[in-house]
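Quick one: co-fold with magnesium ion.
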Amino acid sequence: MIILKSERELQYLYDAGQIVAKTHQEVAKAVQPGVTTLELDRLAEEYILKCQAKPVFKGYYGFTGSICTSINEEVVHGIPSLRQLKFGDIISIDIGAVINGFVGDAAVTLPVGEIDEEAQQLIEVTKNSLAEGIKQAVVKNRLSDISHAIQTYVESNGFSVVQDFVGHGVGRAMHEEPQIPNFGPPGRGPRLKSGMTLAIEPMVNVGTYEVETLLDNWTVVTKDKKRSAHFEHSIAITDDGPWILTK
Ligand code: MG
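Sure, here it is.
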């Protein structure tokens, strides 16, 4: 069942989303060659706690980090560690926070120092594909109009869309219905209604769309070890159009 939120609940979701957005800003400032992903994790956790919120990922099925840090061929769910960022890497950072019982969830991919042209394009296309998806998040469209817009944009730019992981509804729980694939034909699935709140999150690969999970049971990597990027916003569908809660 898709849970529709009241005005008041949307405000709570916005508050959570703003903490996530500000945490992203803080972490982004620290992204540079030599910093470890664990340092980024600590920084994020401290900031979230300072906002009287809690990191949602920590302890989720035993996940040890407060954020996910996925470098280069890592797609999502990378575990913060003593690994240092290197000049030319790209890092996807996923942050979730809960406050007043409501969750915000957002991800970005950032360059570490100067990156090559392919990585720049990958980041740009992934970010734009999220924007294309959000444009379709309007009343009376169907859910898969979002999916289709993302896939079409990504593939027309020569990259591929991950299919094994998808976006999701967001609210009191980090993962609510519906699932939101980043691929597929338009015009399918539930009709979008005011009060729906969705975490839309394209994961885009340079090479094959196929991914696998490492032996740590978390880190998802591309099968061909080519790079991947990830952008995510939590949004609300309103009568006035999509409202980005995590911007
Ligand atoms: Mg998410």
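If it helps, The mean pLDDT is 98.
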